Amino acid sequence: QAQLEESGGGLVQGGDSLRLSCTGSGRTVSTYAMGWFRQGPGKEREFVATITWNGGGTLYADSVKGRFTASRDNAKNTAYLQMNSLKPDDTAVYYCYAPPSYWGQGTQVTVSS
Asked: What are the phi and psi torsion angles at 101 (to 5°)?
């Protein structure tokens, strides 16, 4: 049974940066693609980014392309989401995901204008 734990969220101003981390425990997640999702207030959970198991490929939602960067360190069983040029619309709870159905508890990101 894998467990995922996100960290790195917080309250920032528009234009600032944050780096989220997602660390797996209980089993390795280094052989799996990992994803990032978010759920803003009153909104459904939406896809943000995904990264292949070896970090060689990434995919981003149009809303974050060019501002967010997914990466990973398999030796640390950890994935990262670097978020730059944050906007108030990025305010959400951010979740990491690993197949087949493992989700973290979420970390709150709040961006003030």
From this structure: -160, 40
Tell me the CA distances in angstroms from 88 to 10, 24, 25, 70, 112, one per residue in order.
13, 29, 32, 20, 6
Q: What is the pLDDT of residues 17-75, one digit of tens each?
A: 999 999 998 777 788 899 999 999 999 999 999 999 998 999 999 999 999 999 999 99
Let me know if 63 is exposed, middle or buried by CB neighbors in 10 A (0-12, 13-18, 19+).
middle
Distance, in Å, from the CA atom of 54 to the CA atom of 76, rounded to the nearest integer, reads 13
Strand boundaries in 26-87, DSSP class E: 34-39, 46-51, 58-60, 68-73, 78-83
The one-letter amino acid code at 35 reads: G
Mean pLDDT confidence for 3-21: 97
Closest C-alpha among 109, 90, 101 to residue 34: 101
